[in-house]
Structure formats: structure tokens, C-alpha cells
Amino acid sequence: MYRFLLTPRWWGINVFILLAIPFCIFMGSWQLGRFEDRVRDHRAADAAASTAETDPARPLAEMLPVTTETSGKQTTAKGRYGKQLLVPGRELDGRSGYYVLTLLRVDGGKALPVVRGWLPGAADPAKAPAAPGGEVTVTGALQASESPGSNGVSTAGGLPPGQTAAISSASLVNLVPYTPYDAWITLGKADTGMRTVPPTAPDNTGLDLKAFQNLGYTGEWFVFAGFVVFMWFRLLRREVEFVRDAELGLVPDAPDAGKEQSEDADTGSGTGAPATPSATA
To answer: Which one-letter DSSP state was computed for residue 5?
Structure first.
């Protein structure tokens, strides 16, 4: 009854099933692993945030490059303030405003972007307090360079001179006459007249929509694997029923019946002999 499993058609079906099921299980496991990684990163970020305020500040050179472990940690740097920029379109406690960003020239000629504070309303250079003169030592939370579209970073272009949409070395290198670090800090205590900007968690470390998308994809791949197995058993059952019905004579043999009718027509059997043409005089 099951000899049909050895036909080329069923060989193809079985090979497809044997390849599809492991592939679905692999993809589901991979998506689950991505979700678990995000959960671990989220817990690590929470733990780092809870200890960042109590841990002693470390020199900037020891904290670079920025990683998920060093992001949000307290760091310190010494230098002189240089060019100042404004970062518009930033919200704080539900209010719209802008950051006051000043480049700190450190030893070696490179510059560290420092967010000295936040002000409400539209970006206005006249309202932004001037940076302290002389050599200063700053302490703040280390942050990775921003990318447009993440953590509320604007993707709009065409900003007026003296403004930047993102705090990143790629954006600042065209706005300042010195090389910026691929990192920035937000002061633990804002300068006079401004509010402190709290540090943000690194990208892809929180339980955001992308994390739960990974969990949803996990379920989808395992459902696909179950659906493949279900369809194989359904095809097998239908084929077995067809074979059983054929053995019991319940399935008409349409091709043979057509053949018999053709033979009857050729031999003249049926409703009558074919008419012969009448003789002509």
C-alpha cells in the first residue's frame, strides 16, 4: 500500500520535508537566541546604569572605544573648550528643546563633544551660556556616537550654521576644525542655567519593539515547522485513501473507459454500423 512512497514524486516531497523542518527549527532557534541576547544586554545596561553614579570616574583614554559595558559609565577629561554647537529637537520630560554641545580640546589635538546641558524652546545661540574659559576638568557619562533615527535623533537636514542633528564624529568632522572623538559625554551636573541631560542606553540593548519582533519570529518559524509536518501527514493520508479506494474498485479508471469506447467505435459496435455511401449510377 505504501509503495507509492518510492515514486519520484514522493521522493521529492520527502527530501523537501527533511530539509524544511531542520531549516525552520534552526531559524526559530536563531531568533530565540537574538531575543535572549537582548534580554541579557538589557539587564547588563540596567546594572551598569545603577552602578554608574557610584563608580569612580575613569580617564577617557581607559574608556575608549565605547562598548555596551563602558556606555553610561563616568569618565573624566581635561582640556579647553572650543567651538560650540546646538542640537535642536531634543525632548526632556516631555518638553521640546535643544542640547548645548561644546567641543573640549584635549591633549593630542582631538576634541571631545560635551553636552553641557539642555534648554527649552527653539535653538537660539543667544540663550546658550558661553563655555567656561581656561583649562577645565569635566566629568560625565560616556555615550556612543548617535545615528539618525535612534533615541530620538532627528534625520532632518538643512540645519542653520552652528547646529547639528546628531552627536557623532561623522557629523561633527564637517562642522569643526579638529578631529572629534567617536564618543561624547553628558555632564553629571549641567552648567549654570541649563538642565542636566540624562545618559541613554546603548542601541539594541533594551526590550524594545525589535526585541519582541525576534520573539514573534521565533514563534512563526516553529509554527512553519509544525505546518510542514501537518501537510506531509495530510498528503500521506490522502494518498493512502486513494490507493485503498483503487484496490476496492471505488475509483473509476477513466483512461481505460475512454479506450474501450474508442475501440467500440472502430469495430462498428454500439448504436449501429457506420453508413456506407450509396452507389451512383
So the answer is: G
Q: Are strands 95-106 and 111-120 parallel, antiparallel or unpaired?
A: antiparallel
Question: Would you say how long the chain is, in residues?
Answer: 281
* Interval 53-72: pLDDT, tens: 667 888 888 888 888 778 88
Residue 116 main-chain phi, psi, to 5 deg: -85, -15
Residues 6+ apart with CB under 8 A from 42: 205, 206, 207, 211
Say if strands 74-92 and 95-106 run parallel, antiparallel, or are unpaired: antiparallel
pTM of the entire predicted model: 0.59
C-alpha span between 80 and 101 (Å, rounded) = 14
Specify which residues 119 forms β-bridges with: 98
Other residues' Cβ atoms within 10 Å of the Cβ of residue 124: 11
Burial annotation 177-211 (CB, 10 A radius, 16+ → b, else e): eeebbbbbbbbbebbeebebbebbbbbebbeeeeb
Within 13 Å and on the Cβ side, how many CA atoms surround 11? 3
